[in-house]
Design a protein that fits this description.
2 copies of one chain form a homodimer.
Chain A: H1 18-26, H2 30-40, H3 52-68, H4 86-96, H5 101-121, H6 124-135, E1 141-144, E2 160-164, E3 169-173, E4 181-184, E5 193-202, E6 205-215, E7 227-231, E8 244-248, E9 251-254, E10 263-265, E11 271-273, H7 278-287, H8 290-315, E12 319-322, E13 329-331, H9 336-367, H10 376-407, H11 419-426, H12 436-457, H13 459-479, H14 498-520, H15 530-536, H16 538-563, H17 567-587, H18 589-594, H19 600-617, H20 621-626
Parallel strand pairs in A: 1-5, 2-5
Antiparallel strand pairs in A: 2-3, 3-9, 4-8, 5-6, 7-8, 10-11, 12-13
Helix pairs in contact in A: 2-4, 3-5, 4-8, 4-9, 5-6, 5-8, 8-9, 8-10, 8-11, 9-10, 9-16, 9-17, 9-19, 10-11, 10-12, 10-16, 12-14, 12-16, 14-16, 14-17, 16-17, 17-19
Chain lengths: 658, 658
Amino acid sequence: MTAAPKNDAAKNDTAPSLDALRTTLDGRWADVRQDVRSRMGSFRPASPDLSTEDYRARVLELVRELARTGRPHTGFAEEYGGKGDVGGVVVAFQALGYGDLSLLVKAGVQWGLFGGAVQVLGTSRHHDEYLRRIMDGELLGCFAMTETGHGSDVQHLRTTATYDPATREFVIDTPEPGARKDYIGNAARDGRMAVVFAQLVTGGTSHGVHAFLTPIRDDAGAPMPGIDIGDCGHKAGLNGVDNGRLTFDHVRVPREALLNRFADVAEDGTYSSSIDNENRRFFTMLGTLVRGRISVAGGAGSAAQKALAIAIRYGERRRQFSDPATGEEVVVLDYRAHQRKLLPALATTYALQFAQDDLVSQMHRLQSPGAGPVDEAAQRDLENRAAGLKAVGTWHATATIQTCREACGGAGYLSENLIPQLKADTDVFTTFEGDNTVLLQLVGKGIIADYGKRVGALGPLGTVRFAGAQVLGSVVERTGVNKLPSRLPGRGFAPRDRAQQRRLITDRAEHLLAGVARRLRPALKKGADQFGIFNAAQDHMLAAARAHVDALVLESFVDAIDRVADPAVKALLDTVCDLHALAVIERDRAWFLEHGRLTAAESRAVTGAVNDLCAELRPHARLLVDAFGIPEGWLACPILEDRAPTEADSEPVPSLVG
Amino acid sequence: MTAAPKNDAAKNDTAPSLDALRTTLDGRWADVRQDVRSRMGSFRPASPDLSTEDYRARVLELVRELARTGRPHTGFAEEYGGKGDVGGVVVAFQALGYGDLSLLVKAGVQWGLFGGAVQVLGTSRHHDEYLRRIMDGELLGCFAMTETGHGSDVQHLRTTATYDPATREFVIDTPEPGARKDYIGNAARDGRMAVVFAQLVTGGTSHGVHAFLTPIRDDAGAPMPGIDIGDCGHKAGLNGVDNGRLTFDHVRVPREALLNRFADVAEDGTYSSSIDNENRRFFTMLGTLVRGRISVAGGAGSAAQKALAIAIRYGERRRQFSDPATGEEVVVLDYRAHQRKLLPALATTYALQFAQDDLVSQMHRLQSPGAGPVDEAAQRDLENRAAGLKAVGTWHATATIQTCREACGGAGYLSENLIPQLKADTDVFTTFEGDNTVLLQLVGKGIIADYGKRVGALGPLGTVRFAGAQVLGSVVERTGVNKLPSRLPGRGFAPRDRAQQRRLITDRAEHLLAGVARRLRPALKKGADQFGIFNAAQDHMLAAARAHVDALVLESFVDAIDRVADPAVKALLDTVCDLHALAVIERDRAWFLEHGRLTAAESRAVTGAVNDLCAELRPHARLLVDAFGIPEGWLACPILEDRAPTEADSEPVPSLVG
């Protein structure tokens, strides 16, 4: 184990300028980020002592103010006054994540989920009538998918929409308490309409889940007849968002309420769809809604960045315990344990930011107006990446914000220092817009299906080779002693060799995938205990999915560095990427050891390298968080103030200012 | 990898009765636990929508009500109307942790920290005048130690108490903004006095930190002259506790305000102490306050138990996705991934409960009235265990409650389902009453000092043998290839062999300790870069401390099982202990692989055994959480109700009821 280098003796002798680093991070939609920063930078967090009702009222005001900036419009089609900038609007959403997350989520519900569903599932009859008012924030709406009894398994929602040809109406009904729509944003207070997901039944036949644009309140705000609206009440966070519950008692809506881009019901009740297979139709519809998931991943990234900015700036000011040699108290970020808490998390936050940017670009390419017909394989890949990045990114945010809270000690527990709100608001990110475990399972299923095709496509010879590689791995595992020379990375292991890092991380993903595919194969046999086989391999499948996402994220980081021209930025990002990659390997080094990919000495060298990299990046920590470009107004809190704290700091933080 | 056994085919064929298991868990102070359950079981959680001021008022009422039960008195000396039941009062505190944690913490401040300091640092002049009123909750007080600038390093507090022989008074002063007393419970609203920790200066000489009983408000509640009282305002949680800030401007208190059990100042200003060494004196004083740390560990345990009770009961009701064979929706706790989230955490919660009971008994033995003079070694051991268990237990609680929140999905984010409050309230446990990282460092220093003595005491031959074992380990590590037969556990590895589990966990602790001791040795050389050497080994030291605590906890669990007579309880606890021990080994299996303690196959067998144990304990999960004996009233929430949820569930939870 080598001694840590002195903090001031970093390898990156020429630190990049803040501007150069920020420009790199801002990337393709730099102008959008800059616009949001300057427009919204004057917003202040709500007082933590606002009552739920007052907080909801304030956030509604902010939503209206946001609408007036014209920013939400940019994501909609040009013919309705938008700009068709699908990627830009997601980037703008992410930038909002530096501020009040209730605003972020309420805006996401209004324009992303509700407006987005109307746009992508509806047709011109819906667009003409509603889009403009939705964009302007005049018509507030809900996305009523989740039910009390069905959150993850939305294909089996129980709400029904039964077509009545006599009146040419759908009858929307909640047949049992578990079919109540639950956790619905904008429902408890402000929403006037809802996109209601329900099993479409016509002529006695069910055609699966479809979406219906349904008025839930009249202009005066009273619930429409037959609709019972409940309030989810106080939540752990996001209390500026009015989540509620909707129960329908045979509520009639006109035939035209069906958002009929993918399927329609004729006046006589005849069902038709451009997609014959019910399963495929459902997932096609869901797929168009991928933007919500991508936006949550972005919002989680902003929240993690903000927490790190606070903890690192505080860690550079806070001193505790003396250096015996000098008698001076040591800045806490100079302690290895403190660096270990914050700097690998910072490196991974960079990695996720680049992966997020790639994801947004991919979405923009596929979903922009004029992108042409949907390429199914590309769309599936997008959905898979979105699911994986949402899961990994939101878990990373939750863990990182927790670490930052603890790294700020008691000060991190005071609302005035902003971390409590961040922590409370983002906590639900790991389970909404898809429960993370379920999302990783989705990724797992996706990559197993692809793997099946890949192995098939190799032909007999390729399959044998592939199997050969597997066998080698299996031997190492079964003998239980790492007698075989480690296939990867071999004799000359250098932890900071990027090629070796990539091989390790990619190889792990491949090996886990092949293994789980092998374990699931027996489920294909007739009469097999499918659930038992799947369940016994569930942890394996989740590990494979996680490893797959790790590999994608690292590739995004590597690609981003390749694109950088500024040598100082490139050198710094290279070091950050080393720390990220080695932290990923270190976290799962048991796997690499168990599978003969790392020897004991190599594994310990990884840990040593992580320590060294923490010390090396320590002097750049402030620059790295400043480059996120979080408006100072959104970071204003007593523990970051230059003056000594005064009693005025105990006053409630000023309320929202437009 | 073996297939998971069917859930209904558990090895524990004869499940123990709930009563028998609960009796075992309740242990020595079963009557105290039962008393708190029955007295406090009717308290209801505060509405999450109470304003901070109203919530503080409610919790104050509850503190007064608690005082009327006579329960807090039991921890104080008999001559002042107490019962001297030092252990019982900590157990009672822990049982309060199932209810409102603001009440728990405010009670802890009042009777544990403030009352405790008066009792153990004061003498009869303080006891006669104040103890009765403190016990009765008539005199509310603060424990004013932490300063804005010094939280962990309390030996270097900056507040001064300078003796003025002319008036026979101490002058208490806050010389700089960083010396402000901060985060002080009971300070912002209710406290009338504070035990103020300050550097005692007399005759121009400083004698280190001492405690002064200082009035901070008059009877009408106005701050005393020269004292500025601030409010920490809203916090992430525990908003029923009024944390505040105290700034002293040359505040005069009589000479008798000094809590003078360990040191005194004569009228003429002469300083005297029974403990000559200033450092030792300070740590002796601090050591008497260990009860607070033990209480926090207990409260964290209760909170983790409550979160698990909710998540496991919900996990047995919630269904999602269908079993393809039956078409029936699967109970989520039947999924391996869900079991993996909750059941190892449950097993470790059991382990920590037994370790906590041992710690409380040890404290009771040492600190009960009539325990005789302080045995320094025993006291140091107690402090070390308390520090370690507080750190490990509160981190476990934070992680477990987070896991339970996610395991309940969106429902876990609603305040009505209780987990949000648990999560928010307990979050500060990891950094108050000692920052966990600093506490583990303390444990590390303690075990290194003991190790030095042990190795010395072995004599030359013993040292050589000891070193031999180390060398063997080092060879394995340095060669980097696990060529050597693994010293432990050797050929016949059986994951569920308790002796092998204990050897693995103890051996890891010993090896890490020896390693870090070796790395720190050069710091003893003259002119060595002490900080650099310490800092480079900091992560190693923290790992050694953590491993040491893991070993202690497992030994407590093993001892507890040994004491059980009921064979069905014994068998079930044996299985729970297997899961705990193997989960500990699995979490750090990279270490065991790197150090030749486990082969790759053995390491994978550990993971397989954890999976099998999860399936085996699945049918007993409900019994295991029911045995905590949490009053049903404290678990009442919509997701656990048998009836289908109704709109009434959206109403705010009823307020506190006495």
